[in-house]
Design goal:
This protein is an alpha/beta fold and 314 residues long. It has one domain (3-305): 3-Layer(aba) Sandwich (Rossmann fold), CATH 3.40.50.1820. 37% of the residues lie in helices and 20% in strands. Helix 3 (95-105) links the parallel strand 3 and strand 4 (108-113). Helix 4 (124-138) crosses helix 6. The mean pLDDT is 94.
Length: 314
């Protein structure tokens, strides 16, 4: 394990999705503490605003938070879906992630507050994410976004939702998606990979929580998961947008991310795949050199894919 990350492991709490309420409180407290430690220099150049946008037909409006960097328009956009195992998290906890993307990548970021399971199981959250993409594309001019340069992205469950949203946009002849940013994504409910079998006691996330996550998202008697719940089940990956896929060496989800990236490549989709050695699921939330390097790398990938001028250090 990366030495800086290893030094933090004894301080990390144990997340247990068997108690959703306690897990939500744990994530909120932890994310708030990390937010206080994080670099908030992005606030000097990024304007933040909150909106309610139309949700799926017959469903409530969807909350979004918009991060708009100062400078000329139009610019590229990123519709971002936060992590949290489909059952945890809220927009406010990911301010530093989205603000950092906006400032460093010169992007308008639309962060989506999708409905959470188990109160709102699949397909509620996935459909909220797609509705937010549709709204962003339809209102691109108002937002100062070039509609031909909109990416989707997220981490963990948010990465899975980004992959699902890209599939929906393709299958429904929806908005053009120029790029997908998939950070240690949740993609496969079958839990048959070597990594998910091996990593039963890894920091922050393990195979037991992976099983509980799928039960909460899909229901204990779920049967075969739909493609938009588990994108790894999609038989056809042709025609999807280029992708950046990040996986962590010590993560139960490692192999499904690598497998999805390989299948995208085999389907003719350009992919940049990075497996980060010595890291565990969610490592980039912690102040370590490997985390800073990963963040800079993602910004570089977004800039290259979306035609943004290179920033300092790219």
């Amino acid at each position: 394990m990366d030495p800086e990350l290893a030094a933090m492991v004894p301080l990390l709490p144990r997340l247990d999705l068997a108690d959703v309420a306690a897990s939500r409180a744990l994530l909120t407290d932890g994310a708030s503490a990390m937010g206080e430690l994080g670099d908030r220099s992005w606030e000097q150049t990024v304007t933040v605003s909150d909106r309610l946008v139309p949700g799926p037909q017959g469903a409530p409006d969807v909350a979004v938070r918009i991060y708009d960097p100062a400078g000329p328009r139009p610019r590229a956009g990123l519709v971002y879906f936060h992590g949290g195992a489909f059952v945890l998290g809220e927009i406010e906890l990911f301010d530093n992630t989205c603000g950092g993307y906006a400032a460093s990548g010169d992007l308008v970021v639309v962060s989506v507050g999708y409905r959470l399971a188990p109160e709102h199981p699949f397909p509620a959250g996935a459909e909220d994410c797609y509705a937010a993409l549709v709204w962003t594309a339809a209102n691109a001019a108002e937002l100062g976004i070039d509609s031909s340069r909109i990416a989707v992205g997220g981490a963990s469950a948010g990465g899975g939702l980004a992959a699902a949203t890209a599939l929906m946009a393709r299958d429904r002849s929806g908005p053009h998606v120029a790029f997908q940013l998939l950070n240690y994504p949740v993609l496969d409910d079958r839990m048959e990979t070597p990594s998910v079998r091996a990593f039963v006691d890894t920091p922050l996330w393990d195979s037991r929580n992976t099983r509980l996550m799928w039960e909460l998202y899909l229901g204990a008697d779920r049967g075969e998961a739909p493609v938009y719940a588990a994108p790894a089940r999609a038989s056809d990956l042709t025609g999807l947008p280029p992708a950046y896929v990040l996986t962590c060496e010590l993560d139960p989800l490692r192999d499904e991310g690598i497998g999805y990236a390989l299948r995208l490549l085999q389907a003719g989709v350009p992919v940049e795949l990075h497996n980060v050695g010595g890291t565990f699921h969610g490592f980039d939330a912690f102040p370590a050199a490997v985390s800073r390097a990963a963040a800079a790398e993602q910004v570089g990938a977004l800039r290259r894919a979306l035609g943004q001028p290179a920033g300092a250090g790219d």
